[in-house]
C-alpha cells in the first residue's frame, strides 16, 4: 500500500523534500528565541545593560523573521506537494477505471468509486500535508525543546519527560480504539452516496410514485448511520484535547513551583525559568500536533486501503501478446460456450452454446426476461470472457484480438441507452470522432432520427442535457443507433434498442439496415416478433440455452415457445398501430 501511494508523488518529490527541510529550519529558529529571551532578562534587564538588550533584541527579530520565511515556504511547498499528490491519485484511479472490464466494475459499486475519488482522496491529501509539515515539525520541535530544557536544568526537564510518556500512552489507547470506527465510517459513505445517486438518477420515477418521503427517510437513515459512527469515533478522539490541556497546566504549575524554590536557592535564574516555561509550551504543543497527525493518519488508513484497491485492481480483460489487429469479416461462431458472471457460480448463465452465423446475416434473438439474451451478445465484443469454450469473430477467437480493434468492428447499442452532456453532433461523434456533419446526417436518416432533429430549434447543434433528459426514450434510442452506425462496424448488435420506438419506425429502421448495410452482420434482440420475423434466422433463448434456431416459418412449425409468443402477440390485434398480424417490412 505504501509503495502504491508513494508512487503517486512523482513530479512533486522536490516539494515533498523541501517541505520538511523548511519546517525543521523554522523549528530551529523558534528554538533559539527562548534562549535569546533568557539572555535579555538575565544579562540585559536585571544587569541594566541596554546595549545587550538592543543586540539580543535585533537577534531575536532576525530569528523571528527567519522562522516566518521558512514557515511560509514550508506551507507553500506542503500545499503544492499534497494537492499534487491528490491530483495524481485521482488521475491514477480514473485511468485504471477506464481499463476495467464489466466484471471489474461490478466488483466496485459506482457510489463506492465516487467516494474513493472524492472523500477518500481528500482525506489522503490532508494526511499527506500533515505528515510533511506537522509530522516533521512536531518531533523536531519536541526533540529540540527537550534538549534545550535538559541543558538548562535536567531536574525540571524531567517533568516534561513524565508528561510525554503519559500522553503517549493515552494517545496510543485512543487511536487503537478509534481506528475500527473510522474504517467503518467510509463504508457508510458508500451507502450515503449510493442513496443520493439512485434518487437523483431516478427522480422522475420517485415523483411519479410520490415516494419523496420514503426516499427522504432512506437518505436520513444512511445519514444517521454515518453520524453514529462518527460520534463514536469522535467521543474517543476528543478525550485527547482536555487531557493535553490538563498535562500542560500541570507541567506549568510543577515547573513554576519547583522553579521558584530553585530561584530562591540561587540554583536557577529568572530568565532560565522563563525559557523552561516557553519550552514547556513548545513540547506540549508538539505533542498536540502529533496527536492530530496520528488521528488524521488513523482516518486516512481506511481511505488509503480503498484508494489502493482501485489503483492496484488488474483488469480481467487484457490484450494478448501479438494481438490480431484486423477483423476479417462479421461471421460469428459460439463453440461449446459456457459463461458465468462469477467464477465460483455453480449454475452458469449460458450453457453449452453452439452457434454459427454467417457474415452479413440478420439474426433475431427472442426470449423471456432472464433468458440470457444480453449475456450472449456481450461475449461477442468481449465485454466479458467466456468461462468455457470460445467465441470466434471472423474465424478468430475474440481473445486473440486487440480489444480496441474488436470493439471498433462490433458496434453495440445497449439495452440501457446513454447520451452525454453536449450537442447532438458531439454525441453522434462518439461513433466516429472524425465524422463529417453529412455523415452524421446520413446515419441519423438510417436510424430515423433526422426527422425529429430537424424539428428542433438548433437542429444538430441542440444541446443534450445530462442523461438525455430533454429527449424522449424513442428519440434517445434512435440517436444511439445512429451513433453506432457511424462506426461502420462489421457486426451491429441492437440489444432491445427499439423498444421505445413505434412499430412503423422500427420497420423503417430495419428496412434501412437491409438496404444500406447489407454486409454488416446484424443481431437484433427484441420482445416483439414483428421486429425480428423478417430476419434471416431467429434464436429462441430459454434459461441460458438455445431452445430454437431457424427462420420465422420454421420456428412457427417446430418451436413451442415461439408459437406461444407469436399467438399472444397477434391474437390481440397485433401492435398498437396495426389492426392485424405482425408488421411486414
In short:
The protein is α/β, with parallel strands linked by helices. It is 62% helix and 10% strand.
Trace the largest sheet across and list its strands.
Answer: 6-9-10-3-11-12
Report the C-alpha radius of gyration, rounded.
36 Å
Low-confidence regions: 573-585
Mean pLDDT: 81
What composes the largest sheet?
Answer: 6 strands, mixed
Oligomer: single chain
- Structural class comes to alpha/beta
Helical amount among residues, as a percent range?
55-70%
- The percentage of residues in β strands lies in 5-15%
How would you explain this protein's 3D organization?
With 585 residues, this protein is α/β, with parallel strands linked by helices. Helices cover 62% and strands 10% of the residues. The chain starts with a helix and ends in a 15-residue tail after the last helix. It has helices at residues 2-6, 13-45, 50-99, 102-107, 110-132, 134-152, 154-201, 203-208, 212-237, 240-264, 270-311, 373-378, 403-409, 424-428, 437-446, 450-453, 473-485, 503-516, 552-558, 560-570, and strands at residues 332-339, 350-357, 362-367, 388-393, 396-397, 410-413, 422-423, 463-464, 491-495, 521-525, 537-542, 545-550. Helix 15 crosses helix 17 (473-485). A six-stranded mixed sheet has the order 6-9-10-3-11-12. The chain has a four-stranded antiparallel sheet with strand order 2-1-4-5, with no helix packed on it.
Amino acid at each position: 500500500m505504501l509503495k502504491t501511494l508513494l508512487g503517486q508523488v512523482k513530479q512533486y518529490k522536490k516539494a515533498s523534500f523541501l517541505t520538511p527541510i523548511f519546517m525543521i529550519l523554522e523549528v530551529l529558529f523558534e528554538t533559539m528565541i527562548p534562549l535569546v529571551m533568557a539572555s535579555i532578562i538575565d544579562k540585559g534587564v536585571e544587569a541594566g545593560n541596554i546595549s545587550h538588550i538592543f543586540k539580543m533584541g535585533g537577534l531575536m527579530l532576525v530569528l523571528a523573521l527567519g522562522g516566518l520565511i521558512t514557515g511560509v515556504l514550508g506551507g507553500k511547498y506542503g500545499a503544492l506537494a499534497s494537492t499534487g499528490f491528490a491530483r495524481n491519485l485521482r488521475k491514477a484511479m480514473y485511468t485504471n477505471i477506464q481499463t476495467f472490464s464489466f466484471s471489474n466494475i461490478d466488483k466496485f459499486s459506482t457510489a463506492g468509486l465516487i467516494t474513493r475519488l472524492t472523500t477518500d482522496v481528500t482525506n489522503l491529501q490532508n494526511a499527506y500535508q500533515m505528515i510533511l509539515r506537522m509530522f516533521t515539525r512536531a518531533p523536531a520541535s519536541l526533540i529540540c525543546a527537550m534538549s534545550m530544557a535538559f541543558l538548562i536544568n535536567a531536574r525540571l526537564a524531567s517533568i516534561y519527560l513524565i508528561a510525554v510518556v503519559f500522553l503517549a500512552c493515552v494517545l496510543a489507547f485512543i487511536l487503537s480504539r478509534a481506528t475500527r470506527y473510522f474504517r467503518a465510517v467510509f463504508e457508510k459513505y458508500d451507502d450515503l452516496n449510493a442513496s443520493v445517486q439512485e434518487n437523483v438518477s431516478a427522480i422522475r420515477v420517485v415523483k411519479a410514485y410520490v415516494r419523496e418521503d420514503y426516499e427522504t427517510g432512506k437518505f436520513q437513515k444512511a445519514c444517521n448511520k454515518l453520524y453514529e459512527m462518527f460520534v463514536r469515533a469522535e467521543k474517543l478522539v476528543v478525550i485527547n484535547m482536555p487531557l493535553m490541556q490538563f498535562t500542560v497546566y500541570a507541567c506549568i504549575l510543577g515547573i513554576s513551583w519547583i522553579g521558584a524554590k530553585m530561584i530562591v536557592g540561587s540554583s536557577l535564574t529568572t530568565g532560565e525559568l522563563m525559557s523552561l516555561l516557553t519550552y514547556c509550551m513548545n513540547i506540549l504543543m508538539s505533542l498536540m500536533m502529533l496527536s492530530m497527525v496520528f488521528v488524521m493518519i488513523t482516518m486516512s488508513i481506511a481511505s488509503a486501503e480503498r484508494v489502493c484497491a482501485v489503483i492496484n485492481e488488474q483488469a480481467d480483460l487484457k490484450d494478448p501478446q501479438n494481438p490480431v489487429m484486423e477483423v476479417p469479416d462479421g461471421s460469428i461462431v459460439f463453440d461449446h460456450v459456457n459463461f458465468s458472471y462469477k467464477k465460483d457460480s455453480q449454475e452458469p448463465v449460458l450453457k453449452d452454446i453452439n452457434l454459427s452465423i454467417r457474415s452479413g446475416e440478420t439474426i433475431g434473438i427472442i426470449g423471456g426476461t432472464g433468458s440470457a439474451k444480453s449475456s450472449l451478445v456481450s461475449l461477442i465484443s468481449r465485454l466479458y470472457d467466456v468461462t468455457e469454450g470460445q467465441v470466434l469473430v471472423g474465424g478468430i477467437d475474440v481473445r486473440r484480438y486487440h480489444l480496441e480493434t474488436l470493439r471498433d468492428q462490433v458496434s453495440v447499442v445497449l439495452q440501457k441507452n446513454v447520451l452525454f452532456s453536449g450537442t447532438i453532433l458531439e454525441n453522434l461523434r462518439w461513433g466516429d470522432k472524425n465524422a463529417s456533419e453529412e455523415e452524421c446526417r446520413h446515419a441519423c436518416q438510417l436510424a430515423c432520427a433526422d426527422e425529429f432533429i430537424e424539428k428542433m430549434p438548433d437542429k444538430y447543434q441542440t444541446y443534450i442535457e445530462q442523461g438525455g433528459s430533454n429527449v424522449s426514450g424513442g428519440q434517445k434510442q434512435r440517436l444511439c443507433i445512429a451513433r453506432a452506425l457511424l462506426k461502420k462496424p462489421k457486426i451491429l448488435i441492437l440489444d432491445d434498442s427499439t423498444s421505445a420506438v413505434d412499430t412503423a419506425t422500427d420497420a423503417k429502421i430495419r428496412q434501412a439496415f437491409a438496404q444500406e448495410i447489407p454486409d454488416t452482420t446484424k443481431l437484433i434482440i427484441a420482445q416483439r416478433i414483428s421486429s425480428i420475423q423478417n430476419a434471416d434466422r431467429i434464436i429462441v433463448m430459454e434459461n441460458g440455452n438455445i431452445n430454437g434456431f431457424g427462420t420465422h416459418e420454421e420456428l412457427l412449425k417446430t418451436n413451442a415457445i415461439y408459437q406461444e409468443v407469436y399467438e399472444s402477440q397477434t391474437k390481440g390485434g397485433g401492435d398498437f398501430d396495426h389492426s392485424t398480424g405482425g408488421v411486414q417490412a
